[in-house]
Amino acid sequence: MIKALAAEIISRLNKRVLLFITGGAVNIKEVFTVLRENPLASYGIVMSEAAARVIPGEYIESLKGKIIREKSEMTGEINRADLVVIPVMTRNTLSKVSLGIADNLVTLGISEAVMMNKKILVVKDSFDPENPVNISLGYTKNKYYNQMLLNYCERLKNMGIEFTDAGQLNERLRHALGIKFESSKPPKAEKKIISNILTLEDLLGMGKGHVELCLEGGTKISPLARDYIESNGITIKYLREKE
């Protein structure tokens, strides 16, 4: 009887989350870590062809979710979902969904979720023209293109979709699922990079603001990496004096 009661309680606590994943790459390590470490979510996963090529397979496997490939099955999952999450939304997907274009399983599924008025949470890092990574990569130099993306984002907000960045995903995800927790300031983290040259690629998986970056003395920093460090408030500490 106790086992049956425990199983019933767990089943009620467990939340059904449907993920629509596209082929972006900005801050995906941080995003998938948050998803993987959420103990009360059961995932269904719909991926675009680009996502299958770009997102590391181990990230998807770590979620232990059910991959959905058929439209009829996807519609059923949307109906049952407590929350729809788009952990990676590209500029392409943002534009299509905001214009009502549904030309693949992911855009069709997001459109159906909007029409069903489901609770939808989107991580905006991959398309956001204000994201430091996109700025460092030189993708935000055309202010009119940037404004177009922001207008699409605002249109989806008016439809009830919520947006967050990777750094706030854990808090927003738990809030959306009704999971109470005590927030605390994240501890200072250190990342030691043993390398002659620090590049932007080395930095993309790091957090923001609270990170102390440890470098070997004499390590050179590429221009894009330096822009990213300055934009994200990362502190540099050399393990020994630079030569």
UniProtKB/TrEMBL annotation:
InterPro entries according to UniProt: Flavin_trans-like (IPR036551), Flavoprotein (IPR003382)
User: What's a Pfam family in this record?
Assistant: Flavoprotein
Q: Where is the Flavoprotein domain?
A: 15-123
For this chain, one GO molecular function annotation is: catalytic activity
Name of this chain's protein: Flavoprotein
Q: What is the lineage of its organism?
A: Bacteria, Bacillati, Bacillota, Clostridia, Eubacteriales
